[in-house]
Structure formats: C-alpha cells, structure tokens
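Hi U.,

Before I forget, here's the chain from the pilot set. I'm dumping it here mostly so it's searchable later in email.
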Amino acid sequence: MLRVDSVSKAYAGEPVLIDISFTLAPGARVGLVGPNGSGKSTLLRLIAGDLSPDSGTIWIDPHSEAGYLPQYPVDELRLSVRQSLRRAAGRLGELGAKLDALESRLADSPAGQVESLLDEYAAVQDEFERRGGYALESRMETVLSGLAVDVDLETPISALSGGTKTKLSLARLLLSEANLLLLDEPTNYLDLPALLWLERFVTESDRSYIIVSHDRHFLDATIGSVLELDPTHHTLREWPGTYSDYTAARESERRKQVEAYRDQELAIARIEEDIRRTKEQARRTERGTSNDVLRRYAKKVARKAVVRERRLQREMDRGEQIEKPLPGWGLHLVDLNRDPIGDNRLVVEANDVRAGYGGQEVLHGVSFTLRGRDRVALLGENGSGKTTLLRCITGDMPYTGSVKMGPSIRAGVLSQEQGDLPPSSTVLDVFRSRTEMREDEARTYLHKFLISGDEALKLISALSYGQRAKLALAMLVLCGANFLILDEPTSHMDLPALEAIEEALAAFTGPVLVVSHDRAFLESAGMNRVLLLDHGELTEVDVMSV
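Structure:
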C-alpha cells in the first residue's frame, strides 16, 4: 500500500530525515516514535503530500488514499459541524450536500422547471443510496458520540473550543474515505471513555494506520510494529511488536551495547598498555646494552609495537569499534524533596466547594482532604470540572465553601497550556526573570529539564506545547514547591520526556494531585488514591477499579 524509498528532507540546510525507507502493507498499524524534533510530523506530511522530499520517492497504491490528522489542524471556521463532516466524507458528502441544494431549489422553482430538477434529484439520490449515504448521518452521530463531541450539527466551527475542534478534525478523518490514516497525537483532548472508543475503532478497522501518540496503552492496544526515528543520525529503524515489546527490546539492546562498549574499551586499554610496555622495554634494552644483536632485536620489537599501534588506530579511524552509548537525559525533581512533608500532615482540606461559569454551577458541594502521603489522580470526563477544581484549590477562581492549605505547603502548579508565558520573550529570559542565576548557570539548569543548546534562546511563541511544559516544570522546581498540582502533564509531551517525568515523579516524596487520562503515566507515578468527578460531584473510588 505504501512504500517510502530513500527519502531525505532538510530545513535551511539542517537535515531532519536521511535516507528513510520502509513499507506498509494493507491493514497494517504502526506506531511512529521519537523525541520532539526528530521528524515525526515531517514524515507524516511527506506521506500525506503536504511536503516534497529533497530526495527519494514515496509511492502510494493508486487505489488508496492517505488521510492526515495534523497535530494543529486548520479550522474551516465558516462551516457548520454537519457541513465539515460531510465535506470530509468525500464523494458521499458531496452528494448529500447536492441533495440538500436540489431540495431547496425544488421548493422555490416554478412548475415548469420541477420535472427536470426531479430527474436530476433522482439520479443523485440513486448514487447517494448506492454508496450508503443514508447511513452517513448515523455514522456521523456514532463517531461524534464516541469521541464525546456533544454539539449540535448546525453549530458553526468558529464557536467551538480548541479541544472540540481537534476532536472534530479526528472525527472528519475517521469518516473520510481514506484507507491510510496518518494520526498525529489523536488522543490529545480525549477523556478515558473517548480514548477507549477510539482504541476499539482503530483495532476493529481494516484500514492502515501510522500513529504518533504519547499514550503507551493506546499504542500497545492498536499497533503491531514500531518505526523509531533517531534524532542524532536522522535515520529510521523498524521494530516488531507493540510499544512495550519495542521498549523492552531497545533496553535489552542498550544494555548489550553498554557491556560490549565496556569490554571493547578494556580490550583497547590492555592492547595500548601492552604496546606501551613493549616500546618501553625495547627502549630500555637498546639503551642498556652495547651488544649489536640485542640492539637490533630491540629495534625490531619496537617496530612491531609501532605497527600494532598504527593498526589499532586505523581500526578506530575506520569506525569499526562499537559506538559509545549516548547517556539518557533525566528530569531532575529531586530538589523538590528538600522540605519533606510528613505522611499525616495536612496538605489541602476542601469543604462544600461550589463554583461555575456564567451562572452555571460546575462543582456541586465538593469536599475532600489530602495529606502528605497522598498521590491522587483526579479523573472524570471532559467538562466534569477537574480544571475548575484545581483552580479553586490554587485560588485562581471564585468559589463558595472553603479550601484550606496546610501550613508551610507550597503548591507548584503545571497547567495544561502554559498560556501565562510571555510570547515575545526567550526561554532563557523568562527563566532568569524568576531567579538570580547567571546565564551559564541558568542554561545548565534548563539542560536538566531537556532544554538544551539553542532551545534556550527560542521565543516562547516558537515553542511547542511540550517544550513549554518542560520550561514550566523547570520553573515549578525552581519555586521550591513541596506539593505538585499537575493538569494533564502528558499532553503534547514526547515519549522520552514523558518517561523522564515519570522517573522524576517516582523519586519525588511529596504529595501529588494530578489530572490525566494517560493510564501508563498514572500507574508509573504511583497514584494511591483516585477521586472521580462526575457531573460536578466528587467521589473516591478504588485504585484497582481504574
């Protein structure tokens, strides 16, 4: 169905992809992984035809069509939801729109034109019916319901929220006639029920998929192989199996490489030491004797040592030696543990909290208590009031009832969008405005949070959501927080950064309150309590039931 052959792509002379090749069979589902900046979206856009490769070819079966879900879709603001979905349905949508137009013309046409319009209407209706057009409205409702898009079909797209627009773009793609679907972070903005519905849709589909996602459970449930992009060499490697199979195989290979590299370095050191000793012994022999035979022998031994030294150098120059394994980066949250909180110390106590927007109550008398040992997952469908509750705790919105923060508790908040960062400032300027660090100290500190090199000099407006989240996390640690409030911390994060955050959270000993639909993240972060918000009411549920 798809063949990518020796494709390369560069921007402003900087390579992004070099000699990429792979094939995709009909019905195959693969995950495309790699850190931010490794070229995942570039590769998807090349396959979709939005970009042209600098070299190489991309072949798609003439009977196939690729559909692309970009991470940041372009809105069709002037259309209604129904019109947008119909347009996505291709020829079938065109026929539906044509029938609507003909019906309007029939209602307004003089009697003399009705017969010809009826003939045209009948022909269009026949094709519409043969293509399954009368099931289209039902399919539209099924997909919208599955993705939890609760809007009237006549609503203009311009009136939708950013998250709803993203879900609508996904719905459009699922309704399209494309049989090769390119999904770039399709799980963003999906709550757990919608995410599970999408899993079922993909696994039960006979179409082919290339999926970029930070949700490892979703990848494990949907894919049969992994394409890994290497950001250092700009190459691609294929791994069989699920995402978990890939990570296990990659870690096993990394361990073997570390061991092989260590053995190689020990062997090189032994050879170099042997050469050094041989040359030194030959020099001592030559200097310490007047016997011509012994002196000639010493020179011969010295020449052999030089030959061995040159041979070793040639082998190293040819690159035949095992490459040194690159050290993995890790986010550093250990500084947060400098003021530990006792297990039973009060962190937050909320009583009868009520809040809402525009006269519409969202939280209906919410009460709960968090203590020092608690690592709490706050779950609920989109719109249930999770972010509203977090904003009440942090004092960022009005409410009735009471929220009491324990003495000496310093909350560090990581919001979804980091919209309070000044867009025209650089990363370094924003960070240094919160600290007295010198520039070199600040850059070293930011490096701990996976912000390195020229990334520190980028404008905030040029950062991806994932990069903004890393900056926000760095500033969260800087403020000396001993209680973490994290609102969808995994959204827009690449998998390496996500795994680093999980490792750092596991080392953090303080209380955590996190909103997330990422099941793997919640498991790894060691949540010991689960609070469920449902239609503004809060209940505690068993951790094992989630």
